[in-house]
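Trying the structure run again after the queue cleared.
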Amino acid sequence: MKKFKYTATDKEGKVTKGTFLAESEAEMKEMLLKSGLYVTSSRALSSADFSTFFSLSGKVKVKDLSQFCNQFSVMIVSGVPIVESISLLKTQTQSGLLKKTLAKIEDDMKQGLLLSDAMKKYPKVFPPFFSSMVFVGENAGCLDQVLVTVAQYFETEDKTKRKVKGALAYPALLLVLTVAVVILMFVFIIPTFISSFSKMNVEMPPLTMAIFNMSQFFREYWLYVLAFIAAFVIILWLLRFVPSFRFFLDHMKVTLPVFKRLNMARFTSRFARSLGLLLDNGADTLGALENIRQTIDNKYLLAQFDKVIVQVKMGASLSKALTAEMKLSPILLQMIAVGEKTGEMAAVLLKTAPYFDQDVENALAAMTAILQPAVLVLLGGVIAVLFVAMYSPILSMITSMDTTSA
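Done. Tokens:
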């Protein structure tokens, strides 16, 4: 068996990229064609191309899960048994953790476990939403279709995460640049001015003296400063595991004006798509909510969501429970109410999901429009303060010389 890297398109022109294990390139194209994918380019991979040396982290990327779903679906459509498909897929993935987990799932299935039950044993690799969708597909006999749906879900998640990282990259770069400018000034430029001014017996303003003292302190005790910063970062990292502090941070994420809109838009988009997919594949409302609950990584929103589940268990409609307990998009609440009245909630949510995806992009643009100027102002302010501190003694000296000569 050989590994091939391929690029293919479906009937709608959507491009899909991935790797595939087959005896030959022709066999690969034939198997992909059965699932509606037309190969436009492909090449054989050497063992060096898929080394897992750098993929032994404790987390599987969303992109890897999406590729896994697409390949799994192709094999099922081609008539490959599930256990054999898992055995083949574990050799194709580039994720070391996913490879090990698939090997364990293969052993579990050989001992009689269903695929969904085996996946539930590894929630850090396969989210509860994933295993629930697989369970639905197994019982409905449409596992291949469910896997394609889940792959599309993960692709949307991956695109959103990449857009968030891209939007935050520039402000982060500016912050790093600000820190670099301050360090450069404190270590190299300010000491030069100190030496020059001390020789000329120039009387320095309070701001200049403060900057000079800070520079001298940093140069003499820089090891202690770095140790303090490292200790501060470590303490913050450890506090993430303290429930009350984690709850506080998560609360800030959805209440601070700069980040509120983006985080709530992301939650709304994920909730609408997840609920729509689960309901569309046969899950009941309460079961879908229980599965979605396990995918929420914000403790504050999770506490609110638990209240929603309690109300639904007590007989309240989902739209009323969400309205009472969570401040979600009015449009989402209205769509859910319409879906409950018409009995077509799954269809309504899936049709409106692209709208909420666009809302995430709008929130990203709005956040970037605020953060970038703010960081630029910070950078400009720091440089301005340092400039005034350095040159005000020179200006004072020139002024005094002009006065003396006059």
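The chain has two domains: 2-126, 153-393. Worth checking whether this holds up in the mutant runs.
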